[in-house]
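Deliverable D2.4 — example input (structure tokens):
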């Protein structure tokens, strides 16, 4: 998934005990932020293989530090520690850490068997990327259902508070459309061009910045 990972961030941000939405957007994609960074420096690896799944050409054959369950829990723990140092709140730390590890659990639904428990077989993944008729509505439901839940549990702080929410929703839709409709490679590309990782990192940063703006324009209802 892509924008589906933001569903847990929206739900968590509706709690007064939670970190703000911008931080939770980083938490929701921290595993992929690390993966694309590691891809650029050669710590983890992937290749593009046409048709490896119906929706996604990425052969994610080497990502033990980010997409193993143990790795995701380690990133979750690190994020939780940072939140605790920042807010001195165990509840905030636990919520932030839970959003980080939700990434692995959601990936488990869509990935082909390329996720692991600790970096080695067995490989796990339910493979919904091979079933677009299920994956597409599920992703939209999780992402925009989460956004609707967040909006229903918060209130605008000014007459223009609709603008950042609208821009965030539009950018999420555009980013997901590019992800779904991007051109398929004509052959195996190993390794993929660095621009792939850079574009992914840029998208995560832009969406987190818009989420931060949204959090500045809304407050949780009493």
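Example output (designed residues):
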């Amino acid at each position: 998934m892509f924008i589906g990972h933001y569903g847990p961030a929206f739900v968590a941000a509706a709690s007064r005990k939670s970190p703000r939405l911008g931080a939770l957007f980083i938490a929701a994609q921290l595993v992929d932020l690390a993966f694309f960074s590691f891809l650029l420096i050669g710590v983890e690896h992937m290749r593009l293989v046409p048709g490896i799944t119906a929706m996604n050409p990425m052969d994610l054959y080497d990502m033990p530090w980010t997409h193993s369950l143990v790795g995701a829990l380690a990133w979750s723990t690190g994020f939780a520690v940072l939140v605790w140092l920042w807010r001195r709140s165990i509840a905030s730390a636990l919520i932030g850490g839970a959003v980080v590890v939700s990434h692995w659990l959601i990936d488990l639904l869509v990935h082909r068997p390329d996720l692991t428990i600790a970096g080695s077989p067995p490989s796990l993944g339910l493979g919904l990327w091979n079933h677009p008729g299920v994956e597409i509505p599920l992703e939209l439901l999780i992402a925009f259902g989460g956004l609707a839940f967040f909006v229903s549990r918060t209130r605008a702080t000014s007459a223009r508070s609709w603008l950042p929410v609208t821009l965030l929703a539009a950018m999420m839709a555009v980013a997901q459309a590019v992800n779904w409709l991007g051109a398929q490679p004509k052959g195996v590309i190993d390794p993929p061009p660095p621009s792939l990782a850079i574009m992914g990192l840029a998208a995560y940063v832009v969406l987190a910045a818009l989420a931060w703006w949204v959090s500045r324009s809304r407050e949780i209802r009493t």
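The helical segments are 6-13, 21-28, 30-41, 69-87, 90-110, 132-152, 162-181, 194-217.
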